[in-house]
Amino acid sequence: MILPKPQRLDRHEHDGAFRLTGTTSVRSDAASAPAADALRRALRPATGFALPDADGGQAAITLSVAPRALDAEAYELTVTSDHITITGGDPAGVFYGVQSLRQLLPAEVFSATAVERDWTVPAVSVTDGPQLGWRGMMLDAARHFMPKEFILRLIDLLALHKLNVLHLHLTEDQGWRLAIEKYPRLTEVGAWRRETLIGHADRPEDEYTFDGTPHGGFYTQDDIREIVAYAAERFITVIPEIDMPGHMLAAITAYPELGNGLRPPQVWTVWGISEQVLSVDDLALDFCRDVLTEVMSLFPSRLIHCGGDECPKEEWRASPAAQARMRSLGLTDEDALQAWFTGQMATFLSDNGRRFIGWDEVLEGGGPANLPKDIVVMSWRGEEAGVEAARGGLDVVMAPCEYLYFDRYQSEDHDREPLAISGFVPLSKVYDYRPVPAALADEPEAARHVLGAQCQLWTEYVPTPKHAEYMLFPRLCAFAEAVWRNDGNGVDDFADFVTDRLRPHLERLNALGVSHRALD
Ligand code: ACM
Fold it and tell me: Domain spans of the chain?
């Protein structure tokens, strides 16, 4: 059955089934045209059916938007033996109705090549809509460059699971992946590393060995426009992340004057947290604003992610310029200096009609009270930062590593798994995750600030798209249901999820050629 589980689904066993044929016609109003296109695109390869426009005649499938009747992203889907009707609260709602309809067809409908068979849809009525508005996934395209074609495929897979945010982590110590016209060396130099560590970084450095193979790549601005448009057609917002002031070694290698001048930079070939960070002088801040200006011209999303995580303070402590900046601002420590930096970027973004979003370290150096009220905090080190931010009146996205970091192991038996960063995040743990923290159960005002949740795929140990699919699926399926339903009552049962929805869903992923992990 449909995954994520709809809020309500009634089967009408006695009403037979709708039979899709080469003459099945579709009528859509203007607002539903993107969903109609999506339906045709989705069904054509396997069925060969064109689903012609009804052109004033009787339509077999009717798609429409009824904003007064339904909420944004919500839909109703009714299937009888002679009609299919999808009504959405907005165009996204109709699109989600189409995703559900695809899943009511036999799994072979997801095949990329023609399949000869009968195509029937059981008679049902579905009333559905998401509990949370931010249903995201983050892809680290920086530790290992991920080709554009994979990102487009991933967008289709996110849409199938009714997720609506793709957060692209585009810059790192190990590579800068976004062409910036004003600073060509970011990609000429910063997009390439000489070689890559073999094996895990968590061992003595004198045991490190390297592969001797250069690694790199980047997205042109045209690539980004294509990705953003492709995502928008599937009701997915792409949120770019330019990580600052830490995780900047690739940029500093391209333009050493952006660093603190304490040691020679080199695009990193190992994993971990580099102590080499951005300077906080005017030149570095202007650089960040220039980059964000080009980023805003490419990405229409209101929110722009500026990282803020894991910025060691050793260099700022040792740098006379950073210390002078701290004194002139009357700040007492380097955490406050980072909070000041955050404020500078947040102000710049809001002056340009955008909003700052950052990892939870942005709370250090003063907490929510010390930050502009329109910033968004992504809570990754646990739930506590998200709770603190929400109580302090800031919007939050929950992304706690112990539940939603898909670079972690999927089995406790590490020998049976490809090398992963650490830990154990099994499917059941993802499924049982509840995005609105229990700590906010009696605080509706604060709970309102929880926009939703996001799963993360960091790619230090994930060098290829195929491997990325293995780490993502099926955990992303469990995440999609957790965030779509946000079922605080715990009535949804993991065993039921696996038998009723996930097993049939894996047939769909197989037809799509997704390299998912097998169930235990
Ligand atoms: C993070 O995992 N450094 C956000």
Answer: 8-128, 134-512
What value, to the nearest 5°, has the Cα angle with vertex 381 and ends 497 and 393? 95
> 285: which 2 tokens?
């801040």
Could you tell me the two tokens for 72?
Answer: 């944004």
Whether the predicted pLDDT of 138 surpasses 70: yes
- Atom number of ligand 1 nearest to Cα 310: 3
Q: What is the pLDDT of residue 56?
A: 80
What value does the mean pLDDT of the chain take? 97
pTM over 0.70: yes
Longest dimension (CA), the chain: 79
Query: Which residue, judged by its Cα, is nearest atom 3 of ligand 1?
Result: 309
239 pLDDT band (50/70/90 cuts)?
very high
Residues 13-56 have pLDDT tens digits of 898 999 999 999 999 999 999 999 999 999 999 999 999 999 88
Long-range contacts, 484-490 (Cβ 8 Å, 24+): 484/4, 484/5, 484/130, 484/131, 484/132, 484/135, 484/162, 485/4, 485/5, 485/7, 485/131, 486/131, 486/132, 486/434, 486/435, 486/436, 487/131, 487/434, 488/434, 488/436, 488/441, 490/432, 490/434
Q: Which CATH superfamily is domain 134-512 in?
A: Glycosidases (3.20.20.80)
- 405 CA closest ligand 1 atom index: 2
pLDDT (0 to 100) of residue 488? 61
Q: What is the mean pLDDT of residues 249-275?
A: 98
Position 304, amino acid: I
Domain 8-128 falls under CATH 3.30.379.10: yes
Q: What's the whole-number mean pLDDT along residues 220-243?
A: 98
Judged on CB neighbours under 10 Å (0-12, 13-18, 19+), 328 is exposed
Cα separation, 77 vs 271, in Å, equals 48
Nearest to 369 by CA among 400, 336, 410, 345: 336
Using only C-alpha atoms, the chain has a radius of gyration, in whole angstroms, of 24
Distance 5 CA to ligand 1 centre (A): 30
Residues in a beta bridge with 65: 88
C-alpha distance from residue 450 to each of 77, 385, 485 (Å): 29, 12, 14
Pocket test for ligand 1, best of 277, 357, 359 (most atoms within 8 A of CB): 359
